[in-house]
Amino acid sequence: xxxxxxxxxxxxxxxxxxxxxxxxxxxxxxxxxxxxxxxxxxxxxxxxxxxxxxxxxxxxxxxxxxxxxxxxxxxxxxxxxxxxxxxxxxxxxxxxxxxxxxxxxxxxxxxxxxxxxxxxxxxxxxxxxxxxxxxxxxxxxxxxxxxxxxxxxxxxxxxxxxxxxxxxxxxxxxxxxxxxxxxxxxxxxxxxxxxxxxxxxxxxxxxxxxxxxxxxxxxxxxxxxxxxxxxxxxxxxxxxxxxxxxxxxxxxxxxxxxxxxxxxxxxxxxxxxxxxxxxxxxxxxxxxxxxxxxxxxxxxxxxxxxxxxxxxxxxxxxxxxxxxxxxxxxxxxxxxxxxxxxxxxxxxxxxxxxxxxxxxxxxxxxxxxxxxxxxxxxxxxxxxxxxxxxxxxxxxxxxxxxxxxxxxxxxxxxxxxxxxxxxxxxxxxxxxxxxxxxxxxxxxxxxxxxxxxxxxxxxxxxxxxxxxxxxxxxxxxxxxxxxxxxxxxxxxxxxxxxxxxxxxxxxxxxxxxxxxxxxxxxxxxxxxxxxxxxxxxxxxxxxxxxxxxxxxxxxxxxxxxxxxxxxxxxxxxxxxxxxxxxxxxxxxxxxxxxxxxxxxxxxxxxxxxxxxxxxxxxxxxxxxxxxxxxxxxxxxxxxxxxxxxxxxxxxxxxxxxxxxxxxxxxxxxxxxxxxxxxxxxxxxxxxxxxxxxxxxxxxxxxxxxxxxxxxxxxxxxxxxxxxxxxxxxx
Length: 730
What we know:
Blueprint: H1 19-33, H2 39-48, H3 52-56, E1 62-66, H4 67-72, H5 80-83, E2 89-92, E3 105-108, E4 116-120, E5 123-124, E6 153-160, E7 174-180, E8 188-198, E9 204-214, E10 219-230, E11 252-267, E12 270-284, H6 301-304, E13 311-325, E14 331-345, E15 347-348, E16 358-360, E17 366-384, E18 387-404, E19 416-429, E20 434-445, E21 449-461, E22 466-477, H7 481-484, E23 489-491, E24 503-506, E25 514-525, E26 532-543, E27 546-548, E28 554-556, E29 561-568, E30 572-586, E31 593-607, E32 620-628, E33 634-643, E34 651-652, E35 655-659, E36 671-683, E37 686-693, E38 721-729
Parallel strand pairs: 4-7, 24-29
Antiparallel strand pairs: 1-6, 2-3, 4-5, 6-7, 8-9, 8-38, 9-10, 10-11, 11-12, 12-13, 13-14, 14-17, 15-16, 17-18, 18-19, 19-20, 20-21, 21-22, 22-25, 23-24, 25-26, 26-30, 27-29, 28-29, 30-31, 31-32, 32-33, 33-36, 34-35, 36-37, 37-38
């Protein structure tokens, strides 16, 4: 993977030139107009202070996956497969009790999936918010990393640490920005076919197409589509030595995607883009729910549904983007996006009462989530006090509206969330060696008031080869609509209430936002000869984390149940080391053969009050890739990942007064995974890729779907697999 920090591509961010931002930049423009405009000064500005956000992309907490990386090692279906190979990236469930149904999501620096913001071309993807939030913090969702086919991606940027503060609520862990391919200058297209098979099930078949090119001198277009199916794991995947069924394996997934973009070059300096997309994802049921697992050998109604599609997610988007150049005032970008997600789940128990296993596919209660997003940024070059700068001013508006037919007492009046944000970021070249990037963001949430997110990032060139980088920022996350809605009720269906029988967890409108203060300090070495290395210390001081705790149970006389609410829990400390090390072995700068490594070492990932983990993640992770360009047409890769020991919780995830015993304390020891891949370019239009995943067939099996008895064995690691992919273009 590309770990060269100086090569991060410009982040395709959303932009809107607000009146306030424009006025501020105009005031600064007078200073810029008085500055000498020598060719040398302009060249220095282009090289050092292109934009404030581009400078942040050079921070040590940023890594990039390129189009070439995706071609050499294509993911079967979900991008999380390749994202997990980057430093600071893990796959976990939303809670520290393990993932629901093996549906792990991207977790940056141990802050959990809910603190990872997913973007597509700078536009937020929030479809997973339409999945219900359960007592342990889990959602019935695979996340938002599977809406764009891999062959339609130009690059992916992963931003961790203080640089992510500018993106506001939901970015406390970091940001993943998926950058898609743009319309081409001449008519072109292509077809991609992919097939894989795995030991234990989970086979994938995928087909996609794309078409792009000009319609006239000023109009061009891009169209792509994708059809994919990943099968469910075999029903005996998690069967114990005694033949007892322990837990369900990975669910299967069916995908349908269609996206179109029309670009209109209004003038040489003005571009307008219209984009619309539709996606459908359906799961293939393996018999698991939050509260239990159906043994496939049983004769229950739930067992009869195994292999059926019991969850369907429909996502529709429409967006308009304007980019412009305004002379001395700078460049701007404006984005408006509408996102509509409908999630239809099989009926589980009684509507609004709990989470049993699926018992019917004739009733599909729907949660309908609508998101409205408007954002804009203006990038203005200026000089103040003799210092060359690039000022970024921005304004952003988000509106979330949710309706859930699963919840009988849903309070529609409390099911909206509106946020208005303003932010400034200035990239200041204080000298030829020191670049300072201060920033501040103000989010006004209609329910939680004002939240400030100040940040400060700096880069200092110690020598031409060594660079010192650091940053600090305050980030917040607003409670989600389920957690604050007083009409949202989750029932235990008689389980897990301190032996008192059935209880329920209610929404709490009095919650406070979660807060994280993120710090980062490190060194980068890049002598421009193929060698490179970096090391960074990161620390996140996390407070007000939202969860449930059954120690606060109260009797509800209206229905005779014990009740509790979502609450703000104590503080947590998450800190560790990240880094990379690239060794050229053959050829100029290692172009023939090189070894690329990245690593993450976690010092702490625990609550300060209870000593419980925020996420169950490895003590360390080391990713190593031996990349061999055998001939100009043929390349091969040997990839290995080494995971350190994983420790489970010792206290009940929803009741810190109840200790976990016996199998629930089982640790998952260190293990390694290896894969081998190759890619052959027959000509400029045809490429064949093939490979072996989990080369040595190292399997990890879940020990239970109950997070209190699975220990750290909360997910499946699939067995050995083989894949082949053919890409043909014209």
